[in-house]
């Protein structure tokens, strides 16, 4: 297993370099350092002297990839690509275009993002799987039919509807919880209840329908008929056999959510004014702060690769037939 982890980590390095390089090229093809400086300073005040001073203060005055005026390793280290992109491999994210420390901002905002993402992840998984098992237990009945109709209807509704509708109904009309904002400590609970509820509700439709499809595929296999022939009840068959054998495709889908646990929900955090990583990314996009956006793209890539490795490892726990070589 250790050799497998080392091998996967080695595979991840060129992938991250490629993502980093592609992100860097895309950002600087769309906007040159002069364009970035002009947007940050303001078009009316962006004199050539002000642009050059802004670039010098933030390290954008260097060549892109190769510094022909330097010698030795400085030809590559004294460049914008090394300073702004390659240093992220050492978790040195530098400073945002407005001067703030990106690493410190990430550390400060990770807590609120996790406070929403972890309860949402756990509740969504439990509710969706339970609802899907209920539909499978009553398969080919009216309950199953209308359950699928409900799932499709919930899938068809935009997340914005849940957010705006939830804020109007629960916060404005019923006045049960604050409509937006955030507080530290135990007071954060009253600000998190509504975002978590809405996030769970918005994801039930697609998740439950997908899990139902997986369970229906498993329940038609030979081992299920054998279990029934041995006298096991339908509940025992569902929970002891079908659910366990369906864990591999479930785990495969869960890995997609792992980066969101740390990066936060862009829409939910923005609409509820929660100072997490999701709202941080949205604010950076609106301000065209490419330093922050590049850092968040890099973190998302790292987390996704870690999630893939953890998923492969979890396969060995739920299915002894799977081996890591």
From TrEMBL:
UniProt GO BP: transmembrane transport
InterPro entries in alphabetical order: BPD_transp_1_N, MetI-like, MetI-like_sf
One Gene Ontology cellular component: plasma membrane
Membrane topology per record: Multi-pass membrane protein
Entry keywords, A to Z: Cell membrane, Membrane, Transmembrane, Transmembrane helix, Transport
Coiled coil: none
Residue stretches spanning the membrane: 12-30, 116-138, 145-170, 190-211, 246-272, 292-318
Domain of life (superkingdom): Bacteria
Domain ABC transmembrane type-1: 110-314
Annotated localization: Cell membrane
Main localization of the protein described in the UniProt heading: membrane
PANTHER family per record: INNER MEMBRANE ABC TRANSPORTER, OLIGOPEPTIDE TRANSPORT SYSTEM PERMEASE PROTEIN APPB
UniProt record similarity statement: Belongs to the binding-protein-dependent transport system permease family.
Name by which UniProt lists this protein: Peptide ABC transporter permease
Organism for this UniProt entry: Thauera terpenica 58Eu
């Amino acid at each position: 297993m250790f050799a497998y982890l080392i091998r996967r980590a080695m595979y991840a390095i060129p992938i991250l370099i490629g993502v980093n390089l592609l992100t860097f090229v895309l950002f600087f093809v769309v906007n040159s350092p002069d364009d970035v400086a002009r947007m940050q300073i303001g078009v009316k005040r962006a004199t050539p002297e002000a642009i050059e001073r802004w670039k010098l203060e933030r390290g954008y005055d260097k060549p892109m990839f190769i510094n022909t005026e330097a010698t030795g390793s400085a030809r590559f280290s004294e460049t914008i690509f090394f300073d702004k992109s390659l240093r992220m491999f050492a978790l040195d994210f530098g400073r945002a275009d407005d001067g703030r420390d990106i690493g410190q901002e990430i550390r400060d905002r990770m807590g609120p993002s996790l406070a929403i993402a972890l309860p949402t992840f756990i509740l969504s998984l439990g509710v969706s799987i339970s609802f899907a098992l209920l539909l499978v237990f009553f398969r080919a009945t009216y309950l199953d039919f209308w359950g699928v109709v409900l799932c499709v209807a919930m899938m068809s509704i935009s997340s914005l509807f849940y957010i705006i509708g939830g804020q109007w109904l629960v916060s404005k009309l019923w006045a049960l919880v604050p409509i937006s904002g955030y507080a530290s400590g135990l007071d954060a609970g009253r600000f998190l209840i509504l975002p978590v509820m809405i996030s769970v509700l918005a994801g039930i439709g697609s998740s439950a329908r997908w899990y139902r499809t997986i369970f229906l595929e498993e329940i038609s296999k030979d081992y299920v008929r054998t279990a029934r022939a041995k006298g096991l009840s339908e509940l025992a068959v569902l929970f002891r056999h079908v659910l366990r054998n369906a864990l591999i495709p479930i785990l495969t889908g869960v890995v997609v959510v792992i980066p969101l646990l740390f990066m936060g929900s862009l829409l939910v955090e923005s609409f509820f004014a929660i100072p997490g990583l999701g709202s941080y990314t949205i604010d950076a996009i609106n301000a065209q702060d490419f330093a922050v956006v590049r850092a968040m793209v890099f973190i998302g890539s790292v987390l996704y690769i870690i999630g893939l490795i953890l998923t492969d490892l979890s396969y060995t726990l739920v299915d002894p037939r799977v081996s890591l070589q």
